[in-house]
Structure formats: C-alpha cells, structure tokens
Amino acid sequence: MKKYLFVIGDIHGEIELFLSLLQDFDKSEHQLVLIGDLLDRGRKSKECLLLGMKLVKEMEAIYLRGNHEQLFLDFLRDPENRYSNYLLNGGGETIECLLHQGALDEYSPTEMSLMIQTRYKELILFLETLPYYFEWEQYICVHAGVNLSLPSWKNTSKRDFLWIRNEFHTMSNKTGKVIIFGHTPTMYLYKEMDATKLWLSDDKIGLDGGGVYGGSIHGVILDKKRIIQDIEYFSEYKWEPQF
Fold first, then answer.
1. What is the distance, to the nearest Å, from the Cα of residue 178 to the centroid of all Cα atoms in its chain?
2. What is the DSSP letter of 82?
3. Is 199 helix (H, G, I), strand (E, B) or coil?
4. Can you give 54-72 as a three-state secondary structure string?
5. pLDDT by residue (tens digit) across 15-43?
6. pLDDT tens digits along 204-217
C-alpha cells in the first residue's frame, strides 16, 4: 500500500488543469484516484479520457465511474433515445472531440455512435470496467456519494453512486470512514456561487470546485489521518450550452 492517497476531482475535459495537478503525483508514494467525470462540457475530453486510461494501465491509478462516463456509455448503446439528454449534459463537446468539429451537424446519433465505437474500441471496453468506489485506509472514494440510510453503504445502488446529492450531503455519516466525493460543485454545497474551496462536513470531503463553470479543480493528498495538501488550479474556461 502506498504512503499517501492522492484524489483528483471532476476534470470535465480540462486537460491543462489535469496535467498541472499531475505534476505533484509521485507513483512511488501516491495511490492516485480519479473521482470520475473526466469528460463532457470541456474542450479536451478525448485527451482526458485517454490519459485516464493510461494512468490506470501504467501508473496503478484508480479511475472511478462518474455519471458522465455513464451518460457517454448510455448514449453509445442507445443513441437515438439518449442523444438529446447527452447534449444537455455537455456530451456534444465530447462527441466532436472524439470525431471532429461539425460532426453533430453532419451525422445522425446512430452514425456518430457507430463511428466512435469503431475508432475507440479499447477506450470503450475500458470505461465499461470502471469501478463505482474505492476504499483506502479510513477513506471511501466515490463519485457522487453513498446511501447513508442503508445498514451497509456498500449496498448503495449503482445510480446513487453516480447521481446522489442532497440526501447524502445532509444525512449523518455513520460509516466510520471519511467519504471523498465529487459530482456536486462546492458552490452548491456552500450555497455561495463563488465558492470553490473544499467542502468539509461530517467526515465528508467534497472536492468538485466547479472548474468547468469557471471555478477550480482540486487534487487532495491525504495520509491515513488527515489532509496533507490541497492543490487547487483555477479554470479560465466556463461552459455554456451550445447544442
């Protein structure tokens, strides 16, 4: 087991910030965890996805499934029915990054899905294997959260691991562990639209600083007892729906 845990929050296609955070990554000492949502909304989703896969295969990283990884896979399986919802969630940027600018206007959802599946077979097979959570010492890493009303948090539904919000944020954490999560930008947790700092409450650590909305992306280094370092990079990009 590595000496430290290094958890990186929601990237959403911001490859420059992703690479900046990785400058502090030391494979010999850090167990790297990507909390999910490497894609959508941002401009470089393909590069972020491929880097995530490389980190798992070459650097022993853990890449957790986020709701946006799931939205992408759902679109590929059922393009005609899932297309509109995927665009609303920033999937258009991912599709055009994987294919080319203008692809949304040139092809049908089914055609785009087939082209992506043909060109990125290894990546898609990889994404289909992503785990829903990871435990390290006293920490639980998960994309959105867990169902704290259950006798065992491990019985949380797959949907809740990816999508849960308010009931997880407000319910008492009696797991005996610290839960590190992304998914919900800290501006909403603090109810302050310019808040990007870590959200720390009831043995929960929210680390989605809302980078893709003009906020920040966090990389948090922890030992077995506490946060050792919080690395925060601010984004110059703000996503606006275009499709």
1. 18
2. H
3. strand
4. HHHHHHCCEECCCHHHHHH
5. 999 999 999 999 999 999 999 999 999 99
6. 999 999 999 999 99
Average pLDDT for 78-96:
98
The model's pTM: 0.97
Q: Which residues, in sequence order, are CB contacts of 79 under 8 Å at separation 6+?
A: 108, 109, 110, 112, 113
Query: Which string of b and e fits 2-31 if b means at least 16 CB within 10 Å?
Result: eebbbbbbbbbbbbebbeebbeebeeeebb
Q: Give the end-to-end CA distance of the chain in Å, rounded to a whole number.
A: 45
Residue type, 82: R
d(Cα 82, Cα 76) in Å, to the nearest integer? 8
Task: Select from 32, 13, 16, 29 the least CA-distant residue to 220.
Answer: 32
Of the pLDDT bands very low, low, confident and very high (cuts 50, 70, 90), residue 243 is: low
One-letter amino acid for residue 99 of the chain: L
Q: Tell me: the pLDDT tens digits for 143-171?
A: 999 999 999 999 999 999 999 999 999 99
User: Distance between CA 90 and CA 241 in Å, rounded?
Assistant: 7
**In the numeric block, which tokens belong to residue 61?**
């990283």
Q: Is 179 in a helix, a strand, or coil? A: strand
Contact 75, 83 (CB under 8 A): yes
Q: How many CA atoms lie within 13 A of 156 on its CB side?
A: 23
Average pLDDT value for residue range 179-183 = 98
Q: Which long-range contacts (CB under 8 A, 24 or more apart) does 213-217 make?
A: 213/185, 213/187, 213/238, 213/239, 214/238, 215/185, 215/186, 215/187, 217/8, 217/9, 217/10, 217/11, 217/14, 217/17, 217/18, 217/21
